[in-house]
Write a structure and sequence with these properties.
The structure holds two protein chains of two kinds.
Chain A (H helix, E strand, L loop, with lengths): L2 E5 L6 H12 L4 E4 L10 E4 L19 H11 L3 E5 L1 H8 L6 E3 L7 E9 L15 E8 L3 E3 L2 H9 L3 E6 L18 E5 L5 E4 L17 H11 L1
Parallel strand pairs in A: 1-2, 1-3, 3-4, 4-11
Antiparallel strand pairs in A: 5-8, 6-7, 6-9, 9-10, 10-11
Chain B lengths: L11 H6 L4 H11 L5 H10 L2 H4 L4 H4 L9 E3 L6 E4 L5 E8 L1 H6 L1 H17 L4 E11 L7 H19 L3 E8 L8 E10 L15 E6 L9 H4 L20 H15 L4 E6 L4 H13 L2 E5 L12 H6 L5 E6 L4 H10 L3 E9 L3 E6 L2 E7 H5 L29 H8 L8 H4 L10 E3 L6 E4 L6 E7 L2 H6 L1 H18 L3 E10 L6 H20 L4 E7 L3 E2 L2 E2 L3 E10 L16 E5 L10 H7 L11 H16 L5 E4 L5 H12 L3 E3 L7 H5 L6 E5 L1 H13 L4 E7 L3 E4 L3 E4 H17 L4
Parallel strand pairs in B: 4-5, 9-12, 17-18, 24-27
Antiparallel strand pairs in B: 1-2, 2-3, 3-6, 4-6, 7-10, 7-11, 8-10, 9-11, 12-13, 14-15, 15-16, 16-21, 17-21, 19-20, 22-25, 22-26, 23-25, 24-26, 27-28
Classes of the chains: A alpha/beta, B alpha+beta.
């Protein structure tokens, strides 16, 4: 499997993803600078977290128009897997890879903490090593993670099993208390219809090493390696 | 001189506006042999400001031990540097941004973080952790919620965007900060010992290169503002607060680190306080050379900026560097890649003078030495502090423990700080192995088995009651917090926040605190490698409590030997390490009874501190402890409650005979609570005795309550509600 991480000016989780990918993959992913207009042959493209272009205008809005993202969109259409984490998720919604938008957190504050997530669809290359309904603990760190979509889009997500993860409590139950940012229907991450693009606000790369307080994110990278190798 | 900028006459009023005393002006005239023009006066005013020159403090700072075999660079550079072996060095410093944060809390605090980050990466280090120390006024003081919210959001916005985790800090409330909050920020970075970059200009003819944001009119005279008291007109100073752009900082950081991998950079310094003036003067002074600047070449973002404004602007995210001749194109290519403004704005000269031209005319021509190396130094009059203190109220030894424990856990100074640190990205860089909320934050040295323990400490109420003891305690507590996770404490940075040095009692506080700190640093082999002095922290004649903040760095050679504060499981034995006399003076318990601070602070026995700490660290290294927590504010029972809450495991505690509140809430120093499996408890107590370290078995972990002597029962549920409840409730209350 060949993996690459896109690096924008202002990306700051690029190294963290690199470390997590290397651990599951056994070799280095390629780091690709945002000005590249041609991509090598790849099986997985990661759009990492951070503050691309300072998140000026709107989180992810400027990165969505960078030359490299045009290539990423093309590759995704060809079926290449795209993992978009946090700011990457914001970029993916801005450039149309995924439906919906990420609004300012309902608290209006940045929030960094562990959250519980319920695995809603384990039948994808990203999630095949999780169980259906499994509750995992993965950190979030964002100011704009409040997922929103109109009713038709939401219904379409439900109809096509596109919801990947929902915020929940320790027991897996959905509640307002367990929703850290006010997201519609507790949505923490979604797939595109073809299940080759995953966008999520939580940071699986920060939970792929027991020394960091959790290892529940590791299965996501292991899933990708198993599915795409 | 071919022009006199603006032909502004240098009147006594103009001199006073620049914060210079008449005798200081006379000294300038004597040093340069003529009257300065306005640009030159401005340059002198910032270079001779308290902030840049340390003119009131230098005499006393010389007491600090600054050397040790592991110290690579002590005070005097942009930051201190220590060696942690295996080709790794740690670069760190703490700095204040008090006045700007009071005037404009979000931007003031944000740019404080930006400035300290630059101090660290300018030396060739990649920042890996930020800490802070926040001192707010009484919770119900006017504007205080607004200040708390703004400062926390500002710190978060900057560090989060740059992508450096904010891993620890302190936050307390006291009315002495009502009109002058303190915002101290610390950055810790990693470098290679053979790739440290210094701010020493060298190489006659080498280009002086400007990189980063364009220069605007923001922050003009910030250093002078930081060296003056506040009054009711301070709001008028809002235009002197800078505005931060963390995105540009991130680009600047990456660009500098990329260029530092080559040998194109001869010298580098960030344009922090006093901007282009201090960076050029200090680089020239340290290198023993001169610098000629063409101010017309400085990238500006506003029209018609004058030489005076360009020299004194404190616009953020700017760096000045000396590049090796012939390497300009290489440097420029890196900065263009990162989309940063870059311009050659001068050359290194052999004149020993700082000379600036603007549109062909010389606007400034001064010898470097008096500016940077010969500021007036003051031996300010001071009075030793011997404060008569209200006595600690007497209380019956049979008093209940539950209600005061819950009230302390839910008090402004002891309640959980989750509301704050959840707004900071404390995990980015994926090396934070001990998150906020413990004794010290712990971050791994990336790609190694090593980790750094980091802590920021000071107890201002002790410093106010008895400055020397308070100074000693600040250092000792920091050393203890690093020890409590298992780290070997290596060195400190400091940020000394005091009122006006022109008042003998404030100078007395300063002298006392520094003397106590120096003594503790010597006794604990804990040298000072960098620091910052912030004086004039007073408003309309009311000074802040003396606040000599200490930021410490310790090393864990093997990160996985670290222990945490949380009770790990049921049935572990709980031991109290260190002597307990039940000292209630200056304790939070006494404050809760008396309504104000009472009595004298606990004495600090540095020999006991070292003995007890070395003993505990040895146990941690040998993997014989399951948890450890230092005992500080609130005393023993508060420490036990924090361990129980962190682990969600209760404990059955007791002494024979049963002890009273002084035992459970006294703030005796040099103490730790540790836990271990039952099989080793007896041996540990025996070894402690042999090492002359007091050790007392307090009980066993388990259950959902803390029980004391079988009579008191305090539930984890109640403790958690009190502990977690105060901060969010305070911030959610109707705004004032």
């Amino acid at each position: 499997m060949k993996a690459a991480v896109i690096v924008f000016p202002g990306s700051n989780c690029d190294r963290d993803i690199e470390v997590a990918l290397r651990q599951s993959l056994g070799r280095e992913p390629q780091m690709i600078w945002h000005r590249e207009t041609a991509l090598p042959a790849l099986d997985l493209i990661v759009v990492p977290g951070g503050f691309s272009y300072g998140d000026y205008l709107r989180a992810g809005a400027m990165a969505a128009h960078s030359p490299v993202m045009r290539e990423v969109v093309k590759r995704a259409a060809d079926g290449v897997a795209v993992l978009a984490v946090c700011n990457g998720f914001q970029i993916a919604t801005e450039c149309g890879l995924l439906p919906g938008v990420l609004l300012r957190n309902a608290s209006l504050k940045f929030v960094c903490r562990d959250v519980h997530l319920r695995v809603e669809n384990p039948y994808t290359p990203f999630t095949q090593q999780y169980d259906d309904g499994e509750v995992v603990t993965i950190p979030i760190a964002h100011h704009d993670g409040n997922y929103f979509a109109d009713a038709a889009t939401h219904q379409s997500l439900l109809d096509h099993d596109q919801i990947a993860f929902r915020y929940c409590n320790r027991a897996g139950a959905l509640s307002a208390d367990a929703n850290p940012n006010g997201s519609l229907d507790h949505i923490a991450g979604i797939f595109n219809r073809d299940k080759n693009v995953l966008g999520l606000m939580p940071h699986p790369e920060r939970a792929a090493d027991p020394a960091l307080g959790g290892n529940d994110g590791r299965a996501l990278f292991d899933s990708l390696v198993a599915a795409l190798s | 001189m071919t022009t006199s900028p603006g032909a502004t006459a240098i009147t006594p009023a103009v001199i006073a506006q620049h914060g210079l005393k008449p005798e200081e002006y006379d000294r300038i005239v004597a040093a340069i042999g003529r009257a300065p023009n306005l640009v030159e006066l401005g340059v002198f005013s910032v270079m001779w400001s308290e902030h840049c020159s340390y003119k009131s403090s230098k005499k006393w700072l010389r007491q600090f031990p600054t050397a040790a075999p592991w110290v690579i660079c002590g005070p005097g550079e942009n930051a201190g540097v220590i060696d942690i072996g295996d080709g790794d060095a740690v670069v760190f410093k703490m700095e204040s941004h008090n006045h700007p944060s009071f005037i404009e809390p979000f931007q003031g605090a944000a740019t404080g973080v930006g400035g300290i980050l630059r101090d660290v990466f300018t030396m060739g280090a990649r920042p890996i952790a930020n800490l802070n120390a926040l001192r707010f006024g009484a919770p119900d003081a006017p504007k205080m919620r607004h200040l708390v919210a703004g400062v926390v959001a500002g710190i978060g916005s900057y560090g989060n965007c740059v992508g450096v985790p904010t891993v620890g800090g302190e936050c307390t409330f006291d009315p002495s900060y009502n009109g002058n909050i303190l915002v101290n920020a610390m950055t810790v970075g990693l470098a290679r010992p053979d790739r440290i970059f210094y701010a020493r200009a060298a190489g006659i003819g080498n280009p002086v290169v400007y990189v980063g944001s364009k220069t605007g009119r923001d922050g003009i005279h910030g250093a002078t503002m930081a060296s003056a008291e506040f009054d009711e007109k301070s709001e008028e100073k809002r235009p002197t607060v800078q505005v931060g752009d963390p995105f540009t900082e991130k680009l600047l950081l990456e660009a500098c680190i990329e260029l530092m991998a080559t040998d194109a950079i001869v010298a580098i310094q960030d344009m922090g306080a006093a901007g282009l003036t201090s960076s050029s003067c200090e680089m020239a002074a340290r290198g023993g050379v001169g610098i000629a600047l063409d101010l017309s070449a400085v990238p500006t973002r506003e029209r018609a900026m004058t030489p005076y404004e360009i020299m004194l602007s404190e616009s953020q995210e700017r760096m000045l560097m000396v590049i090796a001749k012939g390497r300009e194109a290489e440097a420029e290519a890196v900065f263009r890649k990162w989309e940063l403004d870059v311009a050659v704005i001068g050359r290194v000269t052999d004149t020993g003078r700082i000379v600036a031209t603007f549109k062909g005319a010389t606007v400034l021509d001064l010898p470097v030495e008096p500016l940077a190396d010969k500021p007036p130094l003051y031996d300010r009059p001071w009075t030793p502090i011997a404060r008569s203190r209200p006595p600690v109220p007497t209380l019956p030894e049979t008093s209940a423990l539950g209600p005061p424990l819950l009230s302390l856990l839910g008090s402004p100074d002891l309640s959980a700080r989750r509301w704050i640190w959840e707004q900071y990205d404390h995990m980015v860089m994926a090396d934070t192995v001990a998150r906020p909320g413990g004794d010290a934050a712990v971050v791994r040295v990336h790609g190694t088995r090593k980790a750094l323990a980091l802590s920021s400490d000071c107890t201002p109420r002790y410093c106010y009651a008895d400055p020397e003891t308070g100074g000693r305690q600040a250092v000792a507590e920091c050393w203890r917090n690093l020890t409590a996770v298992g780290a070997t404490p290596l060195a400190i940075t400091d940020c000394l926040n005091f009122g006006s040095p022109e008042r003998p009692e404030i100078m007395g506080e300063f002298v006392g605190c520094v003397t106590g700190m120096a003594e503790a640093c010597r006794a604990l082999d804990f040298p000072v490698v960098s620091g910052n002095v912030s004086l004039y922290n007073e408003t309309s004649g009311t000074a802040v409590k003396p606040t000599p903040q200490v930021g410490g760095v310790g090393l864990l050679v093997e990160a996985d030997r670290m222990v945490r504060v949380a009770f790990r499981a049921a049935d572990d034995v709980i031991l109290l390490i260190g002597a307990t006399t039940g000292h209630l003076g200056c304790s939070l318990y006494a404050r809760s009874l008396a309504g104000s601070d009472a009595g004298q602070p606990p004495p600090v026995d540095l020999a006991a501190e070292r003995r007890n700490g070395d003993f505990v660290r040895g146990l941690i290294h040998a993997r014989r402890l399951t948890a450890c927590h230092d005992i500080a504010d609130g005393g023993l029972l508060v420490a036990l409650a924090e361990m129980a809450l962190a682990g969600d495991v209760g404990a059955a505690l007791g002494t024979s005979p049963a002890a009273g509140p002084a035992f459970w809430f006294g703030e005796d120093q040099a103490r730790y609570v540790v836990t271990c499996v039952p099989a080793v408890a007896e041996a540990i107590v025996a070894e402690a005795k042999a090492a002359a370290v007091p050790a007392l078995r307090l009980g066993v972990t388990g259950g959902n309550d803390l029980t004391v002597d079988g009579v008191e029962r305090i539930s984890l549920l109640d403790m958690r509600a009190a502990h977690e409840g105060w901060f969010p409730a305070y911030m959610a209350a109707p705004s004032d």
